[in-house]
């Protein structure tokens, strides 16, 4: 065998074995995810810019019904908690980054989860079933500017400070707490496997979502004016709550995001970091990690919204009276006319 033939044989063996030669031209999984994440970022930038520069970037009116004093106190207190808590969290985060001289995994998680927040109005994509109290500080909503959104007239106003804190503060803090809880459980009960931990998290987050949402609904911060009677509690009242929301978002969506962060390898890498060691530019590692995780979180939210809207086609129960600061002139709710057929 000549030297040239020997070289070709060795190269063929490398290709078959999946060695460096055979995979040198293939992008690692993290890069493919990052490309998709970049598409989601570009899409939401387009949506936000159109919303902010439009004449719809104004506060939604509360309508003729007066918001109870206790509810307004709850709204303002929650907004204060969101703002102060957010500033404290940012200060802590900057300090940690400077101290460790590295962008932490939680930072990747926070930014990526925040870049999925644009899908928040998605539960009302086909028909309105959910309403924030318009007493929150708001500037309307960007829903009408989302490509493919079904135009129905007035939409649910987004509570700016609370909306930001949900994705930027509350979810990350919950995940950090649960990360410590998982470590504690595994240290005290080493025999419990990953499936057992995931099952426990699912039950915990589903229960937590139902309890907290019902509490905030009772306070009047938001409501589900239209639900599926079979799978809901307190039906026919302003306190009605769809249990399937608690199971799907509180359980499945939350646990999926928790798994991504909490089940890291010994190097601190998440599932979405597959192939990170093959990145040529080390300076771009953090951005690529964020974009890859952004893709996953956006896909999770997209699937959730699609499923929730399918279930909403069977939402048949509404309270007798829905206050104007909750229905926000959305079609099919309270005294408002029925929604027009999709065009």
UniProtKB/TrEMBL annotation:
<feature type="transmembrane region" description="Helical">
    <location>
        <begin position="73"/>
        <end position="94"/>
    </location>
</feature>
<dbReference type="InterPro" id="IPR033459">
    <property type="entry name" value="AveC-like"/>
</dbReference>
<keyword id="KW-0812">Transmembrane</keyword>
<keyword id="KW-0472">Membrane</keyword>
<dbReference type="Pfam" id="PF17198">
    <property type="entry name" value="AveC_like"/>
</dbReference>
<feature type="transmembrane region" description="Helical">
    <location>
        <begin position="284"/>
        <end position="304"/>
    </location>
</feature>
<protein>
    <submittedName>
        <fullName>Spirocyclase AveC family protein</fullName>
    </submittedName>
</protein>
<keyword id="KW-1133">Transmembrane helix</keyword>
<feature type="transmembrane region" description="Helical">
    <location>
        <begin position="243"/>
        <end position="263"/>
    </location>
</feature>
<feature type="transmembrane region" description="Helical">
    <location>
        <begin position="198"/>
        <end position="223"/>
    </location>
</feature>
<feature type="transmembrane region" description="Helical">
    <location>
        <begin position="101"/>
        <end position="118"/>
    </location>
</feature>
<feature type="transmembrane region" description="Helical">
    <location>
        <begin position="32"/>
        <end position="53"/>
    </location>
</feature>
<feature type="transmembrane region" description="Helical">
    <location>
        <begin position="160"/>
        <end position="178"/>
    </location>
</feature>
């Amino acid at each position: 065998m000549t030297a040239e033939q020997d070289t070709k044989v060795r190269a063929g063996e490398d290709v078959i074995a999946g060695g460096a030669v055979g995979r040198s031209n293939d992008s690692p999984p993290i890069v493919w995810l990052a490309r998709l994440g970049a598409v989601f970022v570009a899409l939401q930038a387009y949506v936000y810019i159109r919303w902010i520069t439009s004449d719809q970037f104004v506060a939604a009116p509360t309508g003729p019904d007066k918001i109870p004093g206790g509810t307004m106190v709850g709204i303002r207190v929650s907004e204060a908690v969101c703002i102060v808590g957010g500033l404290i969290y940012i200060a802590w985060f900057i300090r940690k980054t400077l101290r460790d001289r590295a962008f932490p995994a939680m930072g990747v998680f926070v930014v990526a989860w925040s870049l999925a927040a644009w899908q928040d109005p998605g539960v009302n994509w086909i028909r309105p079933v959910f309403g924030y109290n318009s007493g929150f500080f708001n500037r309307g909503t960007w829903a009408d500017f989302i490509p493919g959104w079904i135009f129905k007239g007035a939409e649910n106003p987004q509570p700016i400070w609370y909306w930001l804190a949900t994705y930027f503060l509350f979810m990350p803090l919950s995940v950090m707490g649960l990360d410590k809880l998982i470590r504690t459980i595994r240290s005290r009960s080493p025999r419990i496997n990953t499936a057992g931990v995931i099952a426990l998290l699912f039950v915990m987050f589903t229960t937590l979502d139902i309890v907290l949402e019902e509490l905030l609904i009772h306070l009047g911060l938001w409501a589900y004016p239209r639900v599926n009677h079979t799978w809901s509690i307190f039906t026919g009242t302003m306190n009605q709550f769809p249990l399937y929301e608690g199971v799907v978002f509180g359980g499945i969506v939350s646990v999926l995001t928790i798994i991504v962060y909490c089940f890291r390898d010994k190097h601190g890498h998440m599932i979405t970091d597959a192939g990170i060691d093959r990145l040529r530019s080390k300076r771009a590692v953090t951005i690529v990690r964020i974009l890859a995780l952004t893709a996953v979180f956006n896909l999770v939210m997209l699937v959730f919204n699609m499923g929730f809207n399918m279930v909403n086609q069977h939402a048949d129960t509404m309270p007798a009276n829905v206050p104007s600061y909750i229905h926000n002139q959305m079609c099919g709710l309270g005294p408002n006319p029925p929604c027009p057929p999709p065009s």
